[in-house]
Amino acid sequence: MVKLFQTGPALSQTPGAMPPSHQLASPAPAPTSPRLTEALNLALLADSQKSDATKKETARTVTLFIQAFGDKPVHEITGRVAGEFRDLRFSLPTSYAKGKQEMDLNAEVERAQEFDLPTLSG
Description:
2 domains, Phage integrase, mainly alpha
């Protein structure tokens, strides 16, 4: 006689029990992602094919992002975060791009609104 089922306590008698074939493996640890400044250095600044102007403008944009959101791991920079950064940049006064950028970004946005200054969004 051939046994078709496992003998012993039934799975239904053990609360929450699953047959071994249905158990999930432990999730793999999430891969670490470089911080934005590290990614900038690895991907752009070290690239001899990129012009100095491209490197300078990209580094400047990354600096603005870090002022606003911090030096986040790249995997945390979602479309939502990028959209918030875009909105923030477009709300800055045009004079911000020409100055030393010593003021806080949010303070500059408030100043642009308060004094009805022209913004980067036009």
